[in-house]
Amino acid sequence: MRFDELELSAPAALVLSRSTAADAVPIARRSATVLRVYGFPIVLGAILVVGTLLRIRLPAGFNGIGFDENLYRTYVGMLDRCGVRHYPVLINSFISHQLDPGHYAILPPTRVFYIIGGYAYHHLFGLEPLRALRMLSCQFSVLTLFVSALAVWRMTGQRALTIAVTALMACAATEIHLAQHSLIDGVFGFWALLVVWLMWENLRHPGKWSWSIALGSALAVMVVTKENAFFVFAVLLLMMLGNHWLKFGTVTRRLILTVFVGALAGFTVVLMAAGGIENFTLVFSLLKEKVPTLPYTIHTGGGPWHRYLVDLLLVSPVVVLLATANILQTVADRTPAHRYLATFSCLTYAVLTVFPEGMNLRYILMLDMPLRFFATQQVFAFSQYFGRHKNVLLACTVLAICAYDLRQHHILFVKGQLYELVTEGLVRTQGIIR
Fold this sequence. Notes:
mainly alpha, globular
């Protein structure tokens, strides 16, 4: 090629290079915009998928049939024979059993939603009653994970906080355990958490009927799920009373009416299923008489007011320590969401410790999400001291806590093969006593 030809071609090549460099800038900007807009739902969606798979795929360790599981399976079998219209037959059978002085206390068939839900899954999917109940428990454990993510996002609007809390919930050892067995506590925990979130929405949006209807419906189903949901109802009343000082939102007459009507509607369904107020009263009179004499209750169900705190610490020590540190801090600028969840957690704990007999960690697992919310808040507070490296520290800390909780699940429930969440088993499986 001659020199003049090379000279003529040079500007064209130079212009082409400038055009490519100029085009790279908007491409980079578009990529950053896409990441900023879609990064949050993508990451959150991935965490939800992983949490769902953990509940479905992780080994359970204990593959036998627990005492409670066998009872629920029996109730579903009885319902299969007599039909939903004759549900009071289950109550009458329970009463006849418990009137025998030689029989110990057993779970009553007043847990209507769980038993009928197992019956429905048994027929819809052609599953054996026990498998149907386990499928129902797993489904509601997954729903608890989804509602936790939605509640944190609605209450705070913070993307990083929502992702971190959801990640910790996805790997929570006790939540995974409840998904793997035919136990009602995970189902009840879902409805309780849903009620707590919907209560928040009603406090923050007092003029919307949609939130009122949702709260009343969730309350009704919660009562139908477990008849002793009264303690959650009591906590809600105390929170509405405390709102005068703590300023969560606005308490209206409609909200008060919604809470009472929802709880009363659920209680009415339970009464109808029991065959009337007389049968219902007799069921709980028998339970009150027999539960304190149950050998298992005597051996595992007692303890001081801090019993639940000890059990929570044995299962998820890192989360509990971080959460406790966060709650005890006297910071004036606490957000309404923080005050709301802290009040709910403390009141729930206080109400449950009023009943000193029959304690079990499963009864208080509705606090899993609030505890992880406080723990994440504490990690965020620590990260502020690390300047530009705080995001890396946050990600590493959350991943480390998730890994530790999964390790706890392996130690307690896979290797230790625990079924019941009582202090003795939690201590022995971790080698604290041998």
